[in-house]
Amino acid sequence: VMEPSPLELPADTVRRITAELKCHPTDERVALHLDKEDKLRHFREYFYIPKMRDLPLIDLSLVNKDENAIYFLGNSLAKMGGYGHDVGKRPWIIGDEIIVGLMKDMVGAKEKEIALMNALTVNLHLLLSFFKAYAETLQLHGLNDADDKAKRGEETLRIEDILEVIEKEGDSIAVVLFSGLHFYTGQFFNIPAITKAGQAKGCFVGFDLAHAVGNVELHLHDWGVDFACWCSYKYLNAGAGGIAGAFIHEKHTHKIKPTLVGWFGHELSTRFKMDNKLQLIPGVSGFRISNPPILLVCSLQASLEIFKQATMKALRRKSILLTGYLEYPMKHYYSKDKADTKKPMVNIITPSHIEDRGCQLTLTFSVSKKDVFQELEKRGVVCDNFIICI
């Protein structure tokens, strides 16, 4: 087995090329020769290199404006390059903060009560770590009782059962964490009632709004919810893995300190002093850990700008009509009392009262749901997890 040839030292390489070209080592021809012989040089074409003319601090009298910049950064390959972090109408370093205003009407909160960060599950962990989630929660201390009552032939939970469990077990519960809208049945839970009941027993009350935000009207501040979090890839249209959101009511602003801190929870004015003195931003913004992913921020901004034009009030009004319009023919053609036994049975398990449901109807079938799904797909009908959402 032959031993690999030892690498030529850079200085030896320069001397060898200098001898070949018969020039001084500092001659430009050495650099051009090295570039020409570089076997990786074609990969440069795979990247967007900013043009001289697009750099904000450029002196165009010193350069050819149409040439590529001499770009030493390994990141931020966009029109302005790394300058995009702190230059322009939407500097990337505050890209998430700039669009919080577009989110406030979606969840009914003040801007300072919202942070756009991380993913849904990460935010759940961060919030629960502060709100003493390691103590007994509703799910671990009695929610199964409500589930058992739902097995009375009912597909959904009764609000009176939920409140009964809170009343019975509330004195030993630290945190009530509940879903705002059930992803499978489409049931829209009474958030104000659950919040009031939990807080009356001394509990913190929070909500997972993954399937509620962008679906129904929310008023987290006015309802007095302690904390909440949500994703943006479902009804907010931002795509899988989109940046998530978190809410902490302003009444907790000066009482809270995240269990896990990161550099983006530090005040921007002193963030880059690097003096190892934490200057935590008050409220939910102090829970931010890392730099916002600007590409995810952009996709969410595009969606939220459309929501702002449409308004949740108008969207909710339309979704109630559309869902009811679908419900009508479903009941007309597929109700249980139809005599035609050849026709498959279709049952709607989403609550019938419009105030108790979001913008979906969840259907169960007497035939294989897989077959139904495939037949719909063949006809270009794209469904979500066997649930038809409108």
TrEMBL record:
Pfam families: Aminotran_5 (PF00266)
Catalysis performed (reactions): L-kynurenine + H2O = anthranilate + L-alanine + H(+); 3-hydroxy-L-kynurenine + H2O = 3-hydroxyanthranilate + L-alanine + H(+)
InterPro entries: Aminotrans_V_dom (IPR000192), Kynureninase (IPR010111), PyrdxlP-dep_Trfase (IPR015424), PyrdxlP-dep_Trfase_major (IPR015421), PyrdxlP-dep_Trfase_small (IPR015422)
GO terms, molecular function: kynureninase activity; pyridoxal phosphate binding
GO biological process, one term: L-tryptophan catabolic process to kynurenine
Subcellular location, record wording: Cytoplasm
Location of the Aminotransferase class V domain: 157-333
A cellular-component GO term for this protein: cytoplasm
Keyword Nucleotidyltransferase in annotation: no
Subunit structure: Homodimer.
Functional description taken from the UniProt entry: Catalyzes the cleavage of L-kynurenine (L-Kyn) and L-3-hydroxykynurenine (L-3OHKyn) into anthranilic acid (AA) and 3-hydroxyanthranilic acid (3-OHAA), respectively.
Family according to the record: Belongs to the kynureninase family.
Name of the protein: Kynureninase
Organism, as annotated: Microcebus murinus
